[in-house]
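chain below, 356 aa
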Amino acid sequence: MRNLTFLLLLVFVPLSLAADFLHWDQLIIFVTSALAIVPLSIGLSTATEKIAVFTGPSVGGLVNALFGNATELIIALVALRAGLVDIVEASITGSILSALLLLLGLAMFSGGLRYKEQEFQPILARVNGSSMTLAVLAIALPTLVTYTSNMVDATAIHNISIATAAILILIYGLTLLFSLKTHSYLYDVGIAESIEIEKEKSATELWLWIGILLISTLAVGFESDLFVGVVESATNGLGLTPLFTGVILLPLVSDFAGYITVIRLATKNKMDLTVATATGDSLLIALFVAPVLVFVGQVMGQAIDLNFNPFEVFALAIAVAVSNLVSFGGRSNWLDGILLLATYLVLAIAFYYHPV
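prediction:
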């Protein structure tokens, strides 16, 4: 499924370049560049997985941790450089919602259609769920300070965001230490199930996948530049707010490879790896990508902080609560998937009609 999607959508890469070179309508550039990002993100994701297999559990886990959400980070960095701060902040919320509700929901629904009930280690859900709860609480603090104070100094909010970002990155480092070193046995099942090739692979093939990773990263960066260059005008023409664009539209484009991955794993009844992938994606966004964007924004001179729209914080709280309730038991079925997907759909509708 992944290979077929990759080949079919790869045609949009030259098509998007032609659309930009020939100065076609901005909506056409927007659509073709968005579709071009999809196969490139699949290539980037596949290369990351292959390199992780070659390098073993420790280094492989670190590679997955750093490149697992590279497409989202690249698009966010390009948008931040273009000054689209509102869309970037919204995309942080959207990526977390997508991982907790859409990714996990698709996995449980598709797996549940094939198996009456699926099991996974509840410890994985509990550890990642606890970390995610802490992350959302930390991200919500600047917003809570803003809306519980009569007068708020913008500098103080920015300083809170900087301090919170530093703590979140530290927590992410400690979660890597926990999962890759001190308690790696809890995560061995995910690594073991993903290794389906012989260990005698040549170094040449490893370098091939490293090359594909680098080329895919550069290509995603180039297509992201095309996409971001027209995203404001195109979405305005479609009547979409920056909030909806960042929360819903960008994650749908940037994490398409993740949707294919979790469906493929769930239908093979590899739910330990599926749950680890979905919850791990949300942690990566909350504990690493969001703080990095705060610090990079500081360097770029773009004032991005963690002072989100109150409705975004509320939506994150709902997503964490629902995903924790569904996954903490260590069992899933198709109805659990429907409940997660329905929650995402209801939130998407609310964001579409939200005026800000």
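Residues 26-67 form the longest helix (42 residues). The first strand starts at residue 118 and ends at 119.
thats it, cya
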